[in-house]
Write a structure and sequence with these properties.
heterodimer, A: 267 residues, mainly alpha, 73% helix, B: 269 residues, 12 helices, 0% strand, globular
Chain lengths: 267, 269
Amino acid sequence: MKPAGYCYIFGMGMQKAMAYRADFFLSLASCIFPIIMQAYLWTALYAAGAADTNGYTYEQMILYTLLAGITSRIVATGFENDVAQDIKDGGLNKYLVKPVNYGSYCFAQFAGSKAAAVGFLLAVTAAVLGGASLLLGIPFEPVRLALYALSLALALVLNFSIFFTIALLGFWLTEIRQLFGTISIVIMVISGGVFPLDIFGPAAAAASAVLPFGYTTQFCVNIVNGQLTMGEIGLGFAAQLFWIIVFTLAHRVLWWQGAKRYTAVGG
Amino acid sequence: MKRLWARVRYYLGLLGLFAKYSLMEQMEYRINFVAGIAVECGYMLIKLMYAVLILNAGAEINGLTANEMLMCIGTYIMVTGIYMGIYPNFWALPLSVRDGSLDMLLTKPVNSQFLITLRKLDFGMPIPDVLCGLALIVYGWQQQGLPVTFANVAGFVVFCITGWFLTYCLFLIPELLSFWFISTNGLQALSSSVFDFNNTPMNIYPKWVQRLGIFLLPVFLITNFPTLFVMGALSPAMILWGLAAPLLIFAVQRFLWRRALRRYTSASG
């Protein structure tokens, strides 16, 4: 398919996401409450002098809380259920007989469905950073903000690759949709979407550095709050690219193997 | 009185039948049963992270020790788990409003709310939450050295039951909006995130947030009042409010239920 075709799919994804606008904005607004709750928790813990955070200052932790909630919402997926449903119910048939790459189709639709939310959340992020600069007195380097934006783009691609790979396991596991809930929550936790993992000790810190998940949220946020040096940021970008390549290869292999055993039930 | 007792027995019998058929269905689809447990373990992981943070800190915050806060978090995990036992009905309600499959349920000669909200019981999802919640409560209670008297245990159980009942009413209200709006996913996400304020005890919030969560939208009653009762930190007025609030919210919810059913048009039925 020509690039114009994927642009059309991108537009369709955007329209689908915006079909119920009140619903769309309420969903986005729901990320505010956990952020408020965690901000109060950290404020209480730091005030009691009891926060064991492995080097995060109060300002860094509050900024982490604010940005992690938004960042994890920006990179969140949700298309994996549709992919598994297509495989299970035979809906994949209509893509197999058309000159379209299913992975590219899903990515175009995913990017379209995220576009409006990302635009809105980036505006919120800018407001949060402005507020943090004024209220907490945190100076933001423009270079770090630019690197944060770049890391977010790569994080979106990485998270898509991870979840597309998992969704393709539906060729072998017919009931995988039941497990998506667990997988999404566990990945959100180990990506640092709730708390930075390195506050839970050296083992958790090592795991977040080695596994791909931390590079979808924790890495991006730690660029802005100054927790990472420029050298560590460079390594982080290398890790993001490495994991994107690994998962792209993985989902290509899975697609190739899975399509061979696909039996096109229903349709 | 005799008629009332007969009705209670009738509905308890029905609940028993719902439980029997739900269990039979779940044993037929065992993978779903296991998957339900796995999903709930994922959510429990997040709640446990808060418990680990507070336990690591080990400090007294605004009058509550780490062990007492553990009891609050444990209560939250346990009450959420028991609510998850009836969650499939809440999840299915907007769908059945949209596709008109509510028709069949409305024609049955039983209370419609009882049938629609309690007919499917999940036995898998509550298991990890109830076990983990109980473990946290017992650990916190024991470490804090709170007296294990009949009054304390009975009060704790009563406030847990009223907490569960409040959860039932407060979560049903957003679902009822599906009678007015086509998509209510956003509202459900919003109400869940408000409920998640219980991930931490209410004492970490400023007084105005606590008052909102106790009197206006009484979510803090659900998980804080059982522990506060055992600590002897609830005034008689607060105990009375803790028992009256669920009834008030239930009255509001019943009013909305009747209004919602009047709007039902049986589309695509």
